[in-house]
Write a structure and sequence with these properties.
five-stranded parallel sheet; alpha/beta; 240 residues; two-stranded parallel ribbon; 11% strand
Length: 240
């Protein structure tokens, strides 16, 4: 059994290694704190890695040095690292889970997952299965239903919702970044490219912004954000 643990936080990386070692006492376990530690794989004529490093399980933090703003699984594959990936991350929201799963992970596991459940989920992934917590899975189902008509909903010409000024709940950092780009007139594809997000994720962020601001479309959302003094803040978020 060969396992790779990748996390940039030493204490949590040690805890993950301990959990993995308890589940597989005889496993060969490698640990890295940055994707920059991966050895460069020589490329073949078609650009694919000429040398492959196969693991039975890869336990990966989602926000890793060496993949800033990008897809850490793609970085692993480009380095020739192969094997099923279980992402263990500090994020617990469905949008991050959607991004993780679309990028090719077999499991999405918040770092708050109890150790016993974590060990069971990792074993499931190593045996060819997949895992997402029930609460996240339910949110994903709701998001999938929502995305079916999200394009039309963003630009619907219905009457504006009651209420101006501050949003019904605070915008997340990512929503602030998306809002700043909405103000420039950027398309979903352009926003996704700039923020390294899937286009459907951009749409879902936009939908949540519209709901929080009580806006009927993108233009109305930008107007309301300007009135609430949110736009200058979101521009700072996007540039930081």
């Amino acid at each position: 059994m060969k396992i790779l643990v990748a996390d940039d936080h030493p204490l949590f990386r040690d805890a993950l290694e301990l959990s993995v070692r308890q589940a597989w006492p005889d496993a060969e376990i490698g640990c890295i704190g940055s994707l920059l530690e991966l050895p460069p794989a020589p490329a073949s004529a078609d650009g694919s890695p000429a040398m492959l490093f196969r693991y039975d399980l890869i336990v990966l933090d989602w926000r890793m040095p060496g993949a800033e703003g990008g897809n850490p699984i793609a970085v692993l594959r480009q380095a020739g690292v192969q094997g099923p990936v279980a992402v263990v991350t500090g994020a617990e929201d469905a949008l991050t889970a959607l991004e993780v799963l679309r990028c090719g992970a077999e499991a999405f596991l918040p770092k708050t997952t109890p150790r016993r459940i974590l060990a069971q989920a990792l074993r499931l992934v190593a045996e060819g299965g997949s895992f997402v917590p029930k609460c996240v899975a339910l949110d994903l189902l709701h998001m999938t239903d929502l995305s079916l008509d999200i394009d039309e909903a963003e630009e619907a010409d219905g009457a504006p919702l009651d209420g101006e000024g501050a949003p019904s709940s605070p915008l997340t950092d990512r929503e602030q970044q998306v809002l700043s780009m909405l103000a420039t007139g950027a398309t979903n594809k352009e926003i996704g490219r700039h923020l390294s997000l899937q286009e459907v994720t951009v749409k879902l962020h936009t939908r949540r912004i519209l709901r929080k601001l009580g806006a009927r479309n993108r233009t109305d959302a930008v107007r309301r954000a300007q009135q609430a003094g949110l736009l200058s803040r979101s521009l700072n978020e996007a540039s930081s």
